Every structure is written in structure tokens, then in C-alpha cells.
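ERR on first pass: missing label on line 2. Operator R.T. fixed the label and resubmitted. Corrected input:
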Amino acid sequence: MANPYLRTAQRAAGTAERIVRSAAKPLRSHGFPYRAPSVPKGVEVPREPSKLGANYDTEWARGPVARAARGLIAEGPLRLLVKGVANPDVVGLDRLHDLSRLDDPPPVIFAPNHHSHVDTALMIRAIPACWRRELVVAAAADYFFDQQWKAVLSALALNAIPIDREVTGRKSSDQFRDLMADGHSLLIYPEGGRSPDGWGQEFKGGAAYLSTRTGAPVVPVFIDGSGAIYGKGMKRPKPGRTKVVFGAPLRPVDGENTRRFNARIEAAVTRLGDEALTDYWTATKRAAQGSSPKLTGPEYNGWRRQWELGEHRKLGAAGLRRRQQRRWPDLG
Amino acid sequence: MPRPGFVLEVDKSTPPILFWRGEGFSLEKLPADRSRVIYPAEPLAGLDDVDGHIRNALLNPVDMDPLPALLHPDMKLTICFDDASLSLPKMRKPDTRQRIIEAVLDLAAAAGVDDIHLIAALGLHRRMHEYELRHVLGDRIFDAFHPRGMLYQHDAEDYENLTVIGETDQGEVLEINTRVAESDLVVYANVNQVAMDGGWKSITTGVASYRCLSYHHNPVTLQNTRSLMDRHKSDLHKSVWRLGKVLQDHGPRIFTVETTINTDAFPSPFDFLSKREWEWNAKDRALYLATQKSLKRTPNRLARKIFHGIESPYATTSVQAGFTPSVHEITLQHVYDQHIVPVEGQTDILTMGIPFISPYNPEGIMNPILVMCMGLGYLFNMYRNKPLVREGGVVIMTHPTYREFNPVHHPSYIDFFDEVLADTTDPVVMSEKWEKKYAEDEWYRHLYRTGNAYHGVHPFYAWYWGAHGQQWAGKVIIVGGDPTAVRQLGFTPASTMDDAFEIASDVVGRSPTISHLHVPGVLVADVV
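pass 2 clean. output:
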């Protein structure tokens, strides 16, 4: 007769083996309810509306805890990131003095050109503190809000609001109108996305439309040099120098439709771009003559366009880095 | 609604009153029932859209065509602007001059004007440092025009670039900068902080030669200037207006842009200085004590750095442009709206605290000559009709009056103090005996033209500025000043305000009436 102790031990070992085998079994080999149920043939399941993309609810990101966290992010890692990667020279803030000196500065719409993911961080640091605290960022719904983790991170760190790139829908515009009525300012990229080739793109009418609808002034902004740091298609950032030039606030004049106002905003950013690469007087004269270099670059395509981009960048903040690296020969 | 200025009759319940003492201040108890304090009006509300008002003024000028109609592509356009002596303390960026000039440049660009020069109208003041030009004009204008040689500072000793425009019926010769003289249009960008500024005075002194200035910057003219803040009773302004008429008839076309600012001079934490003493709350009192006690222990150099670092949150209260005399009349009305305080009758004594700054020491040391100039020149002249103190009365000032000079800005002041004041304090005598030597000194001329020094003759002008006050007052006492320096100025030193009243009793008796001009805050007492 076998030892009873040995039998007990054999049973215990068998149980343990079953548990381990069960735990090691891949999840996919478990059936329902560990997995989603299969759908019987001939039955149509109603689709739940997506909570991502343009439908993502960012209300939580404007609560006190998220605001406090965002303040810490802006003053800590974001500040270091911007300083270390982009080293911006911010000019033209004096043009906002009439608004910023008020006890309660009104909400404004910041409309910069867009070359890089660095732009948003740059703008958050460059915008005066009186607007920064209540700033919301219009971010492409199909890029920043397509996955849960990206949506949470964008909403928390940047106070981003999803917006459709192609059209400013009524829902989005109502949301922005309500936010601005609550005192939030808006950062929106009128180009709709980052530049694909280093040159600018034509402005879409979102900023002009929202300004007309809310009465908030549009502040044109030109960001120079960010495309060379982390432009579209670059695998990793290449630290350099940038320049952020703020322009005078623009308001739609009586009888001006959105299209014309949008053209005026684009012209203002174009002038600031010229000012960033040349000087104030040259840019002013060219703007008056209608001969400012276009943000969208030369008309021709192919290598010549890229070639000219290199020459263009040499004039700006990106060129400063190269000039500074020049070494003179030691002549003894 | 800002409260107007008023006269407080001092009684036993009146708290001690604030007095400036250079880079510091003190609270002084004034005798009850025979003293009064003249308080300035609170700052008027500023314009909401300053740039919009500037544009509007350029497009709808007074007694002139709109600016765009005066601009054409092949013209010579010159833009002149006031130097760092305005405003005091310096205004927060953006400076009004920058806003005006940018608006003018926008129109000039639209008209295709290429030949533009920007000239700092220094007169005989020191050349501005680059950081001062950048502060006044902004980086955009500086970076665009200075490297091309299109932005520079007037040189009153560059006789190759000075042109005689004409002569008044009293023999005063108008000699101004050649570029200004040869321009098709001159735009002058003014900041009018007090009633003395602006009008024809800006351009006929700012871009003139020493010879031209000497016609009105002399003891006789300034002794008959009653006061600097009342153009119609000022011989200096009458002379300047005669020269302006010559410029109008024979010189380039002038388009003047004048702006007025309110009296909101001190930002936090110094904003308690502008409050009335009985309205100081616990925070103001704590700030006063902390500031006053720490300033007492602070080296002069550091204290000066702190005070000169102040950027005032002035607001622009009006903008007008066009024909110079017409524009100036409107400007004066706006200035008086802010500054005028009606006062009844004169008193035996006038007391005043002298601050750390005067128009001639932006970013510099308030030397003893400038203390005299600020007290008897500027503050004494803050009146219309008649002075606050009776003729032969006593003026009491509070200031440390240390014997310190800025050798870069005020080289000729040092020699003036040691050489000229040791000989005489009489402006008429010094002008006859010493002025020419200092005005024509090659070393001073070199420092004025190439460095950042005031013209060699400038300490004389600073002294003449107080000539009317000096002639009017029977005695001048400085409380808390370095006795040697105060005596060199021809004044009497006193250690405390009570001592000063005791010393004054020799002149005004045992129970004199007293007026105190409350500074900070700028006011013009309309004495009837």
C-alpha cells in the first residue's frame, strides 16, 4: 500500500500543474466571457459612436487638478524641452501691449504658421502668461486624438481640443465659441497641419471664421526655424534655434467676409515671416508693395524648390546655428 | 473716475507727509493750522486703442492735409523724436514714440518712400546709449534703420551738417540740422509729459545748434520765464515761437504728432508713493517701512540702479497730429486736464522733496547742480499765474545732495561745480565770465560728439533753469544734504525739517505759512 502522504502530494502537484497550465494558456485560447462574444450570423450589432477623434471629450482637462498638473508640466519639462531643443528668441510682444495691460485681457486667437510638433510647445512658452493660463490648443482630431493614450496626453499636457483639419464644423465652432466666452484663448494653426516640404501652406479659414463668430482678435504669429529642428518626416529632433515673431492683433472690419479676413491674416503672417528673415522696414515696404516672399515658397516644384528652401533657411534662425559653428583658422 | 487734485489744510490729525530724498524718502510732520499740501490729481484713464488713435490722428490731422497726402516716392522724409529725457521715469515698452514712428513708417511704405532718416532730437543732451534707443524705438525699428545709417542722433557741434534757416525780427538765428532743413517733410514724434514740452520747442531746440539755443537758454530769458509751464508768460517759449515762425516760413514742412500721458508713474511695489498718506493700508505702510529702511542701508549705486530700473505704466491720454501750433494748443489742454490744481494765494515757505531723477540724469547720478535745477528749475516752476511762495520767501528742499557726478554723462558738471560755483552762483555773472570757455572747450566737445556726455555748456543751462526761482526766493535750504556741497550751491544746509523751519524764521518770522508740493505725481498749481 502506497504511502498516504505520497498520494496527497501527488494530488497537490496535479492541482498546481493544472493552475500553472491554465495561467500560462494564452488569453486568446480562453473563450467568452474572457473574450468578446462572437456575433451570431444574421444579427447586426448597432455600432457605438467613437469616443476618440473629434468626439473626444476634453472637459476633464480643464478641471482644477488637470490645470495644476499642466502648470507644472509647462513650467518644468516643457520649459526645459523648449529651451534645450528650440532656444527661441521671442519678439513683437510689445504689439500685444494694449490687450495684455488690461486687468482682464480678452481672449484672443493665436494663428501661427506650422512646421513642427515643437511649434505648440514653443507657442505655449512664448505666449504671455496672462493668456497662457487659459490657452486651449486646436489639435488635429485624426492625429492627436486617434488613440486613447494620445488623446489623454494631448488634453492634459497641451489643453488640446480636437478639431477637424478640413472643415471647422458647427460642433467644433460652438465648442470654441463657448470656450472663448469662458475666457479661454485659442491657439490654432490656419495651415491645418505641419508643412510637408518645409515651405508653408495656404491658410484655411478656421481662425478667421472663429474670430468673426466670437469677436476675438486674431494675433498673427510667425515661427521661424522649427522645421529644421523637427520637421515633418524627421525621425528625431535636431536641436537648434528658433524665432517667434508676434504681430499686431487683427479684427474683421465691417463688411469683411471670412475669406478676405483669412487672406489678411495670411498676409500678416507672411509679412512677419519677411520681418523675421530681413528687418522691419524691408518687410514693411515689401508688404506695402505686395512683394513679400510667399510663405508657400516658389511656384516651381522639384529639386529647385528644395534648393531654395536651403537658401531660405540660411537667412533665418536655423541659419544662425550654422553660422555660429564656423571655425576660423588659427593663424598663430 | 479719478479724483482731481486738491489742497489739504494741515491740522493736528494730518499724518506726516511723504518727502522724496533722492533715492529714498521720509515722512515729515508739517506745522498744523498754517501748512497746506498740494496734492496732484489721480491718473486720468488712458486710451484703449492707442495705435488706432495714432492712425486716426495721422489720417485726420489738425490744420494740415492727411499724412498719406504729404508722402510721395521720391521725397526726403525725416522723422525726429524726443530723447531719453522723456518720459521720467522711462515708460514701459512699447514707448509711444515707437508706436507713432511705426504708424508713420507704415504709411511711408505704402507711399513708396525710400529716403527716410530717423534723428534723435538731442539738442545739447547726451547721446543715447544703444539700449536707450532700443527702449524708445523698439528693436524692430532699431535693427532695421541703425545698421543702414538711417537712424542717428543729432549733433549740435557738426557745423558741416547745420544750416541757417533764417532770422527773427529780434535777431535770433535759426540754425538746424541740414538733413532736417533739406527734407520735404519732417515728422516729429513727441511725448508731452509736462506743459513745457512740445510745440515749436521740440524741433527748434532738439535739432538746433549751440548758437541757436543760446538765444533763449540764457539767464535773462529764464529769469523772465514765469513760468516754464505757462507758455504765454514764458520768455523762453516766446523766443522759441519766434524761431518756430521762421521755420514755418522758410524751413521744411513740419508734421507734428503730440501725445500726452497720465501720471501713473510707479508700478508695484512703489505704487504707495502715489497714494495719499491717510489712505495707506497696512500693506502700504509695511512696504514703506521695508523700502525706506532697506534703502537707508543700500549703497547709493545699487539704490540708483533700482530706481532707474523702474518702468512706468503710464497710459496715453491723447494723440493729436498736424500743424505744430494748432496741435500744441490741444495738447496743452490735455496736459492741464491732468495737472492743474487750483490754489488760493501764496505762502511764506515752499517745501518740496527732490526725487532721484531729473530730465538730465536718466540712468545717471543726480549731482548737486541737478538738485538745484530740479528744485528751483522744474518743481518751483510748477505754477501758473504766480509762484506758490511769495517773493522773498523760503524754499526748503529735501535731498542728500551728495557730491557725486557721473563722469561719462556729466564731465563738464564736475568742473562747473569746482570752478564756476566756487567763483559765483549768479547766473548772469557766470554766463558772462565762464560760459564761453565751457561751450567751446575741445575736450567737452569731443566727449559730447563721440561719447555719451552732455555738451560742455549744459551745466550752465541747468543752472539758468533755476534762475527765476533763485531770484525769487529769499533763502534756499536743503534738508539732509551734504553741507559742503549745499554751501557750494549757495544754499543753506539743515539736518532736519524742524531745523530748516528754525533757519527760515530769520527770513519769514516765527509763524510762517507753508505750502508743500506733493511729489510724486505731477501738478501745476494755478495760483490765484
